[in-house]
Amino acid sequence: MSAALVLRDVRKTYANGVEALKGISLEVQAGDFFALLGPNGAGKSTTIGIISSLVNSSGGSVEVFGYDLDRERVLAKQRVGVVPQEFNFNQFEKVFDILIAQAGFYGIPAAKAAERAEHYLRKLGLWDKRESQSRMLSGGMKRRLMIARALVHEPDLLILDEPTAGVDIELRRSMWDFLIELNQQGKTIILTTHYLEEAESLCRRIAIIDRGQIVENTDMKSLLEKLDVETFVLDLAAPLGEAPSLKGLEVRLRDARTLEVAVPKTRPLNDLFVALGEKGISVLSMRNKSNRLEELFLRLVERNLPAGGGA
Amino acid sequence: MKVSFQWVAFHTIVAKEIRRFVRIWPQTLLPPAITMTLYFVIFGNLIGSRIGDMGGFDYMQFIVPGLVMMSVIQNSYGNVVSSFYSTKFQRSIEEMLVSPMSATTILLGYIAGGVARGLCVGVIVTLLSLFFTHLQVQHILVTVLVVLLTAVLFAIAGFINAIFANKFDDVAIIPTFVLTPLTYLGGVFYSIDLLPEFWRMVSLLNPVVYMVNVFRYGLLGVSDVNVVASLAAIVMFTGGLFFWALWLLKRGVGIRH
């Protein structure tokens, strides 16, 4: 399998002295569905900014399908489509015109551009809005417009920065289906997201970036296998004054009727209920505190914090 | 193939720019038409009739070339500075920066858009002036050349202004405090030969004096300055500004972190 994207020792220090990227190296294979995760300010958007030429790097190199972004700029850029985090189209332009202009910037003649614009607007449910000014669209429609715009030159690599932020659940699911369809058609997809469930559901590989460094880069399955503890939230039948002591289990009382218990994966859940029974605690219902990836993510990022905690 | 790709991209920017200023014609094409008509009525007809001749022509005829040139300068500059700054402000500039379009194509596209509006307004003002006086072009080549070069020069200047602008106020500062005084003191309403020697010499430091006079030479056949030297200076100045703007754009000054 060839590489769709190769980052080598990419660095970025902003004019104010902030070192956003401390030399990250990353390889994304063609056809992959890749998640780039990290807390706010970790360097995700800077990384995407450098790949999409919106941010000047301070060092290192970027290759897209074997083309160096500095030396073979046109060939590299033609293969990348970017869906940014924030809306960045002219608010007064019509939806259709935005797509036609974007295609034109990639050298696609008007007739071909119109054909593709229609295809992607229909695909993303925006065809009826083609004559509307973009400012008149709802938040979800604006997100879809940015996806359609990123696809109009038919890139092989699609990068989405928080594509489903502020989108309702139904629309989010339909966007997931669309992204899966694109990936099945052969497009390489890289996404950053705050919805870790999104990364877990869609992506096969994952890199976690924190404080300008890659702290994990592996496939989703191997990463989840590293999770050795799972936290459960228990709704109690009767209120408790303090957290009970359960042998070998980490327990926290969230409020009088809610208990959080961290259970090592090696221990049967029955032990938990036996211990609770011994203390006379009845459980009404039980659920996972968060999805598995979220727990792992927090643990990796916390591990990376300097002594005394992070800012 | 590469040329044709850049050509499509260039054409896209120009079409977009023209569509923009035509769509908002009450803000772009109508105001200069009204302002210049007022100039023609007040300065040309009412006051001009008492002033008498200027440079061997009646006052109305004398001011027409200057007023046309003033419109071209203000509109080619204004189009680029407001349009390019607006793309920065709305971040739609990112649509261009992520694309494989070259910096030269982006710059040329915006210049062409500014020139298109400058010339469009120039033609409107010229047509309006025909209601007040008659014009007979003396040197068509010089007329076309200088109006084109001036439009290009001020379109580039507007682009540079937009690159450095961080807020909407910055877009208005140069036109208000630099461009307007230079234009009004650039020999639009008077021949600089009327000025005392010291102020005449000071006026020669104003680049607008050369543009207005060369244009007046093209239309009326008279000029306060040497036409060939002026044209050469305008060409050099335009070239200098072009390469500065290109360098700024390639470096990403004001648009990339």
What's this, in brief?
By secondary structure, chain A is an alpha/beta fold.
Walkthrough of the structure:
The complex is a heterodimer of chains A (311) and B (257). Chain A is of the alpha/beta class and 311 residues long. Helix content of chain A is 33%, strand content 29%. Chain A has two domains: 222 residues, 3-Layer(aba) Sandwich (Rossmann fold); 75 residues, Alpha-Beta Plaits (2-Layer Sandwich), CATH 3.30.70.1560. In chain A, strands 6-7-8-3-9-10 form a six-stranded mixed β-sheet, with helices on both faces. Chain A has a four-stranded antiparallel β-sheet with strand order 2-1-4-5. In chain A, a hairpin with a 2-residue loop joins strand 9 and strand 10. The radius of gyration of chain A is 23 Å and the shape is globular. The C terminus of chain A is likely disordered. Chain B has one domain. Chains A and B meet through helix 2 and helix 3 of A and helix 1 and helix 5 of B.
Question: How many angstroms separate the termini of chain A?
Answer: 40 Å
Main structural class of chain A = alpha/beta
Sheet with most strands of chain B: 2 strands, antiparallel
* Quaternary class: heterodimer
Helicity level of chain B: over 70%
The total tally of domains of chain A equals 2
What is the end-to-end distance of chain B?
32 Å
Question: How many β-strand stretches of chain A?
Answer: 14
Q: What's the overall average pLDDT of chain B, rounded?
A: 92
Instruction: Look at the structure and give the mean pLDDT of chain A.
Output: 88
Q: What is the CATH topology classification name of the largest domain in chain A? A: Rossmann fold
Strand tally of chain B is 2
What's the story with the biggest beta sheet of chain A?
A: 6 strands, mixed
Strand content of chain A: 25-35%
